[in-house]
């Protein structure tokens, strides 16, 4: 049932304040404002030598955000790869390493194969899944759930933000167990997560402005997405969402890579979506953005009030998001990139919930 939405994808985008809340309530003791894991861990975060993350598509981008979190907040070394590459690389895996696979369906063939390889190589196996009865869940030593309900739209939306919410909580747990996060620091991060659902509701209210921008985007044949640091995976996710449902060619790049090639593509016909909430890296990203603007590129900047002031003039479109703690900014920024792809696809008249050539669950490699 789509409720009063035209597509399941729209309904699922709008469910995110609740699905994030449900997922958070599983990982966080809301009264104590502390992460409190219900799962019995078959490993000790304090003693882990390395975390290896493997997944496909959007789940892989969730893992890529988590790499920034685990490295920064838990000082845990993280290796990450798409499952289709990981499974054939025959990577050496360390003693006392943890393999974390991420999968909405829990049935993705490559992700399952990567899990089995890691199990054979003696890794602890954790799975972050939405479908609790899935094959991947059954084969893991510990299962972390996302609690977003069934996802019907082929393009993943609410599963992505639920994965990020769970991963953020796990990164805090790891940071505390490893003695990296002081209680007050951990508490500030948990507070940011608790405040997230209301910020997501607020972000959803910018739909009108996003629809306007999408009208222009639907006339483009190529779109570039840029982000830096933990926003880089959001650039990748934004580009993936746009191409899979609108069929417009899009590429996500780390903002700093721009001058190593892709800037050659920039002209007046190329919209460039810059995902840059105000944080310690925004100056760098904005300077990349101005390089694009100087070459006539049309810019769509996703930022907050502070970022908009720093950005100055010459920006074609600014999409204002609520100000959030930088820790949760990747989760909040998922909303505008999802809505941008959704409305662009609606303008194009594509089959949003069932894009051509795609299946919800990829059970063959
Ligand atoms: C993109 C999308 C896919 C999936 C990928 C992994 O919107 O939905 O990229 O994220 O096929 O699927 P799961 O998470 O089921 O392993």
List its salient traits.
13 helices; alpha/beta; binds fructose -6-phosphate; five-stranded parallel β-sheet; 12 strands; globular; 365 residues
Mind explaining what this structure looks like?
With 365 residues, the protein is an alpha/beta fold. The chain is 46% helix and 16% strand. The chain is built from 13 helices and twelve strands. The strands form three sheets. Strands 4-3-5-6-7 form a five-stranded parallel beta sheet, with helices on both faces. A five-stranded parallel beta sheet has the order 9-8-10-11-12, sandwiched between helices. A hairpin with a 4-residue loop joins strand 1 and strand 2 (34-35). It is globular. The mean pLDDT is 96. Bound molecules: fructose -6-phosphate. The site of fructose -6-phosphate (F6R) has 15 residues, from helix 3 and helix 10.
Structural class: alpha/beta
The ligands bound in this entry are: fructose -6-phosphate
Helix share bin: 40-55%
Specify Rg, calculated over alpha carbons: 20 Å
Please state the overall shape, judged from the principal axes of the Cα atoms: globular
Domain SIS: 41-180, 209-355
Subunit structure: Homodimer.
GO cellular component, one term: cytosol
Function: Catalyzes the first step in hexosamine metabolism, converting fructose-6P into glucosamine-6P using glutamine as a nitrogen source.
Quick overview:
Helices cover 46% and strands 16% of the residues.
């Amino acid at each position: 049932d789509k409720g009063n939405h035209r597509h399941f994808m729209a309904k699922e985008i709008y469910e995110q304040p609740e699905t994030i809340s449900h997922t958070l309530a599983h990982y966080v003791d809301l009264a104590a404002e502390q992460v409190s894991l219900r799962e019995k861990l078959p490993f000790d975060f304090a003693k882990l030598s390395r975390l290896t993350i493997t997944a496909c598509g959007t789940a892989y981008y969730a893992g890529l955000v988590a790499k920034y979190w685990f490295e920064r907040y838990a000082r845990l070394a993280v290796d990450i790869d798409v499952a289709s590459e990981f499974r054939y690389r025959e990577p050496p895996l360390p003693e006392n390493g943890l393999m974390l696979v991420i999968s909405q369906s829990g049935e993705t063939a490559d992700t399952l194969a990567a899990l089995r390889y890691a199990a054979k190589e003696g890794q602890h196996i954790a799975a972050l899944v939405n479908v609790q009865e899935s094959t991947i869940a059954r084969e893991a030593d510990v299962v972390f759930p996302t609690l977003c309900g069934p996802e019907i739209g082929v393009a993943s939306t609410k599963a992505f933000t639920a994965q990020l919410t769970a991963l953020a909580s796990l990164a805090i747990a790891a940071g505390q167990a490893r003695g990296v996060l002081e209680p007050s620091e951990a508490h500030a991060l948990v507070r940011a997560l608790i405040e997230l659902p209301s910020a997501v509701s607020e972000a959803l209210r910018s739909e009108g402005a996003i629809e306007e921008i999408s009208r222009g985007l639907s006339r483009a044949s190529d779109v570039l997405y840029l982000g830096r640091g933990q926003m880089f995976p959001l650039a990748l996710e934004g580009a993936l969402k746009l191409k899979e449902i609108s069929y417009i060619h899009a590429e996500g790049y780390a903002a700093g890579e721009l001058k190593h090639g892709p800037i050659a593509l920039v002209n007046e016909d190329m919209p460039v979506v810059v995902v840059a909430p105000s944080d310690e890296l925004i100056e760098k990203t904005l300077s990349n953005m101005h390089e694009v603007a100087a070459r006539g590129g049309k810019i769509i900047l996703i930022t907050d009030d502070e970022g908009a002031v720093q950005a100055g003039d010459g920006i074609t479109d600014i999409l204002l998001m609520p100000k959030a703690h930088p820790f949760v900014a990747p989760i909040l920024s998922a909303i505008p990139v999802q809505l941008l792809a959704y409305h662009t696809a609606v303008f194009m008249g594509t089959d949003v919930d069932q894009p051509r050539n795609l299946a919800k669950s990829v059970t063959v490699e």
